[in-house]
Structures are given as structure tokens and as C-alpha cells.
Design goal:
About 10% of the residues have low confidence. This protein is mainly alpha-helical. The protein is about 55% helix and about 10% strand. The protein starts with a helix and ends with a helix.
């Protein structure tokens, strides 16, 4: 190869490398912005939840009306009947948990109503172990039938029932972390090495459910998962500069020494 050709190849390589670095920088900026948006959304959700609980006391007739999802926009296509009926993907095996805890935890973690056979699949139990009629559950008032054989949690819960569901969520979160701990910690480490920081809300909302094999999870279960990781001291929360709003630092996560040991092992 002539020196001229080598020089041209070197220039082309340098140009492509610079373009790659620029794209990676843009991706990091986008992910950082998304993390900040999700954190702001989480703050709003907490305020809304607090107001809804207050409304439940003042006007229970209004508070018990289920929320309606907004109609799909032009960019969003409404899911087909086959997509809506797709079974929830199974992650960890919940079959060792008390059936009541597993069913309540799965229902609390599901964004959509689940068929009793889907509940059994996610729980890692035979369909015959989860009856089409869930009235045998001790806290059957938590379960609201929407279609034959399809169930979800009632939109508003009494405080005693809320505590029972939180305990069920905790047991389900423990089962998931026991089963998928390495995958979750590896995902945190991979993002931490690639990004300026790993936003708490960005990871919880965008990565955790998929990595943990619980893509059916909603905010309540992912919060329970993060709490379990924190209580095991596998991750820690710290605050870093918020480039978009310096007055409000961003909550970020990283692996603890124990978490790093788990990944390396």
C-alpha cells in the first residue's frame, strides 16, 4: 500500500472514529435527558398519588372510579386483540411463595388485567393451581373481575388491604432479585461505565423490568425491586449535578462494593 493510500485510509478512520464519538455523546445526552424527565414524572406521580389518597377519604365515590387510559395518538397504534391477550412473560419462579402472595403480587405488578392462566404462568405454577374463580383468596375484595377469568386489583384499597398487597409485592420482589440478581447488577454496571451517571428513575422505568425478566411489571413492583436491591446493599443512591437544573441534583445509582463482588463472582 502506498503512503498516499495509507494516509487516506488513516484520515477516513479518524473521521469515522470522530463521528462515532459524536454519536455516543449524543446518545449519552439523550439518555441523561430521559432520566431527568422520568425523575420529574416520578415526582408528579407521587403528588398525584397523595392527592388521590386524600380524595379517597373526602369523596370515596369519586376516588373509586377507575382511571381511563388516554386514547392512542396518531403515532400510537392501539394494540390488537392478539397482542392484548399475549401471556405475560415469566421471569422468576414464584411457585415456592404462598399462592395468595404470588397472585396478589403479580396482579399489583401488572399494568393490565391478567387471565388466571397467565397468572399461573408468571407464578411458575400449573394452571390448575390458580382457579378461574379467585374468590378463594383471603383478600378477594382486592380483586376486580373485568372479563371472565381475567383479574386486576381494585383501583382503590383500604389501608389494611394496601399493607397486605405491599407485603405480597415485597415477597415477589425478593423472588425476582433472588433469581435475577446478577443480570440486574450487570445492567447497572454496564450503564455506569457507558454514561456519566445512571439515573435512579431512568434505570427503574426503562431497564429494570426487562432485565429482571418481569416485563409485565408496573411502577409498584419496580419500586419494590429497587427497595430490595437497596436493602441488600447491592446498590446505593447518590446525587450528582443536574445539567438542566443545577438547583435540583439528580438521584443516581451505582453498585456498592458488595454489588461489585456479586458481579465479579
Amino acid at each position: 500500500m502506498t503512503s498516499t493510500a495509507a494516509d487516506e485510509l488513516g484520515e477516513a478512520l479518524t473521521r469515522l472514529t470522530n463521528e462515532r464519538e459524536a454519536i455516543l455523546a449524543e446518545i449519552a445526552t439523550i439518555e441523561r435527558d430521559l432520566a431527568e424527565k422520568h425523575e420529574a414524572l416520578s415526582d408528579l406521580n407521587e403528588k398525584i398519588d397523595a392527592m388521590e389518597k386524600a380524595l379517597a377519604v373526602l369523596r370515596p365515590d369519586l376516588a373509586r372510579e377507575p382511571r381511563r387510559s388516554p386514547p392512542p395518538t396518531d403515532e400510537e397504534e392501539e394494540p390488537s386483540a392478539s397482542e392484548a391477550a399475549e401471556p405475560a412473560p415469566a421471569g422468576a419462579d414464584f411457585s415456592h411463595l404462598p399462592r395468595q402472595a404470588a397472585v396478589l403480587g403479580i396482579l399489583a405488578g401488572s399494568a393490565n388485567p391478567l387471565h388466571y392462566q397467565e397468572i399461573a404462568e408468571v407464578a411458575g405454577a400449573p394452571a390448575s393451581s390458580v382457579s378461574p374463580n379467585l374468590s378463594h383468596l383471603k383478600y378477594r375484595e382486592l380483586v376486580e373481575t373485568t372479563e371472565p377469568g381475567r383479574y386486576r386489583l381494585a383501583p382503590m384499597l383500604a389501608i389494611e388491604a394496601e399493607q397486605e398487597v405491599n407485603e405480597a409485592l415485597r415477597l415477589v420482589a425478593i423472588a425476582i432479585v433472588d433469581d435475577q440478581q446478577w443480570d440486574i447488577l450487570e445492567a447497572v454496571l454496564e450503564m455506569d461505565e457507558r454514561l456519566p451517571f445512571v439515573g435512579f428513575e431512568h434505570f427503574r422505568r426503562n431497564r429494570l423490568a426487562n432485565v429482571a425478566g418481569a416485563r409485565w411489571a408496573n411502577d409498584r413492583l419496580t419500586h419494590a425491586l429497587m427497595k430490595e436491591l437497596l436493602e441488600r446493599e447491592l446498590i446505593e443512591v447518590y446525587h450528582t449535578d443536574n445539567p438542566r437544573n443545577p438547583d435540583f441534583p439528580t438521584a443516581a445509582i451505582r453498585l456498592t462494593a458488595e454489588g461489585l463482588d456479586e458481579v465479579e463472582d
